[in-house]
Amino acid sequence: MLLVGESSEHELGFLQSLGLSKIQLLGLLSCEHLTVVALGLGVGTWAGFQMSRLMVAPLAVSDIGQSIVPPFILVTDWSLMLPTYAMILAIFHHGHVRPLPIDWKNETV
């Protein structure tokens, strides 16, 4: 988040000149980054399922080109995926909340 603050100083300054407090600005940036993380996880998961289907389909035929019986069944190990997602969200949370202690009374970061 600090890198975003440094790379878009003009945008942040413009938003502050419109009247956004530092807390509102922090909330806006956090919401923006959370949206990117959620979309990345969702699209990445969907793409992974699609790639699995694409990779398994050519393997699900016999030596004479007929579909094998029983067909391949793709199984996702969610006991591995969910902790991975939780770690990604924890890294996101740690990167947004921990390095910016806020003085809630004075709205200073």
How would you summarize the topology of this molecule?
Blueprint: H1 2-7, H2 9-17, H3 22-56, H4 78-97
Strand content: under 5%
Q: Bin the helical content.
A: 55-70%
Gap from first CA to last CA: 13 Å
Main sheet properties: none
Secondary-structure content class:
mainly alpha
Which regions have little confidence, pLDDT < 50, spanning 5+ residues? none
Estimate nothing, just give the exact number of structural domains: 1
Record field, number of beta strands: 0
Q: Averaged pLDDT, please? A: 81
The H-and-E topology, N to C, reads as: HHHH
The number of helical runs is 4
Rg over C-alpha atoms, rounded to the nearest angstrom = 22 Å
Inertia-based shape: elongated
Organism: Geodia barretti (Barrett's horny sponge)
Protein name: ABC3 transporter permease C-terminal domain-containing protein
Main location: membrane
InterPro entries: ABC3_permease_C (IPR003838)
Overview of the molecule:
It is a single chain. The longest helix has 35 residues, at 22-56. The chain has helices at residues 2-7, 9-17, 22-56, 78-97. It is an all-alpha fold and 109 residues long. It has one domain (2-97).
What descriptive keywords fit this protein?
109 residues, elongated, mainly alpha
